[in-house]
Amino acid sequence: MTPILELRQGTKLYRGVPAVKDVSFDLRPGEVHALLGENGAGKSTLTKMLAGVVAPTSGEILLEGRRIELPTPADALRQGIAMVYQETSLVPSLTVAQNLYLMDDKPFHRLRGIYIAGQQFLQSLNFHVDPAALVSGLGAGQRQMVEIARAVHHNAKVIIFDEPTASLTPEEKYQFFALIGRLKKRGVSIIFISHALEEALQISDRITVLRDGEHVVTDDTAKFDRERIVRSMVGRSLKDELYGSQKDRKARKPGKKVLSVQNLSMGRAVRNTSFSVFAGQVTGMFGLIGSGRTETAKVVAGVQKRDLFHGGNVQFEGRPVRYRVPRPAVLDGIIYVTEDRKFEGFFETMSIAENIYLAALAGGQTKSWTISMSEMKALAQHWAGALNVKAINNDARVIELSGGNQQKVVVATALLQKPKLIIFDEPTRGVDVGAISEIHQLINRLADDGIAVLVISSYLPEILQLSDRLLICRQGRVVEEFEGTQADEDTIMFAAVH
Amino acid sequence: MGYLGRPTQEKIVFALAAALCIGFALFLPGFLTANNLLNLVRSVSILGVLGVAMALVVIGRGIDLSLVATMAISVGLTMQLLATGLPLAEAVAIGILFSLLVGAVNGFLIAYVEIPAIFATLAMGTLIYGFGKYFLFQLDVLYLPDAHRYLLWLGQGYVLGVPVPIIVFAAVCLLAHLFLTFTRPGWYLRAVGDNLAAARIAGVPARPIIVTQYMISSLIGFVAGMVTAASVASMNTRIANSTYVYDVILVVVLGGIGLSGGRGSVRNVIVGTLLIGVLLNGMTIMDVQYTLQNVIKSVILLSAIVIDTFLNPRDEQTAQQGDI
């Protein structure tokens, strides 16, 4: 069988450094091909070469056996290769139908005409999206549907998805998988990048694993299991399975009450929520996207602006607090570790050492008004060593590190503040498999040392693995509480959804 | 690329300035004399001092369009007070207080009321100029009283053969560099410019830092204004209505300080100032028309930026929101 799309000996160098080295990849007609690997393994670069976003340094691309050149994404689209990105590329201020017809060759469209045509087209795909709705008003799942519809509308024979499920709720995910099935029936071939191994095992026909820009293995999905994928991804067998036997684990006893939140309300995201966090244990907070977990944590830590504060009390170590900016919270020992490190986690113009030292300056751990380079070096060495940050040296810029190492630097800047309450918001999002277990061990160690730890996550196995106590959020409030060891996935999901 | 490292805009501009220097030295008689070179640097040292003031704000991801107006009015106020017979120390102190107050209001509007810097300082510049002209003095030009002619030393004097304005420029550069590299507030300022959200979460007192950065820029502006006034024995407040502030921004951007904040240092200002200085000096010797000089200046700026985007292409990994 001729592969519909093939890359032969593709290599891509960024400033002389290979992101992808001599990788051959083929996509069969009508298959779903999952592309797996740690962060920095070269998945994105590989697919970008196929979609005309970046040009390969060497190697050739074949479409149905013919050699093709793809100078721009528009050329790729014309050849029938579409890429659906993590961050959607729709125009938010236009309607669904306008977005669908945006890249058409016809210079003018009648609005009514494209609404009717759009409606028929969306129905033929069985998508329930209003073609006259503005894209800015759609949820993440619906936006993705529109992206996919647009790809199909351009007669894409190959659709590449870059982490399509990262921003979807479980329900939307379910719909998305059904959709993949329908696309397959229409004869569309699909490449699918993911971090969630279960998803890949569930919906793909074949799996390719990349590691450090090199091809490791391609095989039928049926011949894979979790263990084999992880082993190929990290090049070693993880000693204890990542999300293994939480049942044998003993829950830590709660220490003294560190944080107590009563009837906190803010804007539309946080509605009259109440909960407590205790020292010496990990309190997990689970909820679907939009359940107000991040917002609640940010109000507690003073990160959120208080424009829409509707009342409620926060008590920290027994005294009422009301932080308007993060600084007093940091000085009191409440540290928030962000879910979005690129946006609000680190300084991209600064090196690892400078990031760490700046945190020490900002949190008052270093008192002096002048900078001490030797103190900076010592601090950086200590923390980069303690958290096993892998970089050429501590003068490397954080932006150049892999996701896992970036996260370790961000965690280091939090830990050096000597927190009494530390809030991890999605601590392993966009982090490679090897670093996930290191971060989990670290979180457990913090709780063992008597620190109050609050972990927010939308990944159930993670929250089950870590939590001694479990809070479930729904529609802006904590609705249920479990002992970490007694809950199972079904009860938790039930509480989070209903 | 060897020990030179990656060619940054700073290096390109420096190379350009050096090339121009060599070219002028070979083909323009009178260019490569000690006198002319000192003149060259002296002529741009006030621009350079203002460039440092602007650079500090731009590194903190802001911009100060009221810089020149504040300078003109606060120094004008000092001249006015001197004319009424107030002692030097008091007149200068009031001028400094006035400029610090303007900086504090700028910073307050930007940090606490959260108005974009470009609008806040644009409005403040017009406001300050109008306020000065209406309430403080009616004249356009305020002369240095004869009793204080010793102040002319600041603009026209020499120390060991070096003109005083150059020494002021060097001192301001040194202080600003030490501030950015070796002090806690300097690091805070860079952090706020690089990533405001991350700086807040880390515990940086972000809003006080923003207020401070505008106060510092106004203060440096006052210094530049005093040197200006001392050079020509007067302060022409109409400078506030000229395009001078854009020349200051030109120096900053030309030197390679990113308007997206966090990037750049005092070195970039020096390089940008030198290029402008060499260019203006050479063109003046060649007797190029003023309007044509402006055209050449802007073409140079555009080419520096274009070359930079070719040599340091941005992909989605390095591109950041707010990148201008």
Question: What's the pLDDT, averaged over the residues of chain B?
Answer: 88
Low-confidence stretches of chain B: 315-324
Largest interface, chains and sizes: A-B, 32 and 28 residues
Under CATH, the topology of chain B can be stated as ABC transporter involved in vitamin B12 uptake, BtuC
Distance from first to last alpha carbon of chain B: 28 Å
> Quick one: CATH class of chain B?
Mainly Alpha
Q: What's the layout of helices and strands?
A:
The complex is a heterodimer of chains A (498) and B (324).
Chain A (H helix, E strand, L loop, with lengths): L4 E10 L2 E11 L4 E5 L6 H8 L7 E6 L2 E3 L4 H6 L2 E4 L11 H5 L10 H14 L15 H14 L4 E5 L7 H16 L3 E5 L3 H7 L2 E6 L2 E7 L5 H9 L22 E10 L3 E9 L3 E5 L6 H8 L12 E4 L2 E3 L4 H7 L1 E4 L3 H4 L7 H11 L10 H14 L16 H13 L5 E5 L7 H16 L3 E6 L2 H7 L2 E6 L2 E7 L5 H9 L1
Parallel strand pairs in A: 3-8, 3-9, 6-7, 7-8, 13-18, 13-19, 16-17, 17-18
Antiparallel strand pairs in A: 1-2, 1-4, 4-5, 9-10, 11-12, 11-14, 14-15, 19-20
Helix pairs in contact in A: 12-13, 12-14
Chain B lengths: L8 H19 L6 H26 L7 H17 L4 H24 L5 H20 L4 E3 L9 H4 L1 E2 L2 E2 H19 L1 H11 L1 H7 L3 H27 L1 E3 L7 H11 L11 H20 L4 H22 L13
Antiparallel strand pairs in B: 1-4, 2-3
Helix pairs in contact in B: 1-12, 2-7, 2-10, 2-11, 2-12, 3-4, 3-5, 3-10, 4-5, 4-10, 7-8, 8-9, 8-10, 11-12
Summarize the structure.
The complex is a heterodimer of chains A (498) and B (324). Chain A has 498 residues and is of the alpha/beta class. In chain A, 34% of the residues lie in helices and 24% in strands.
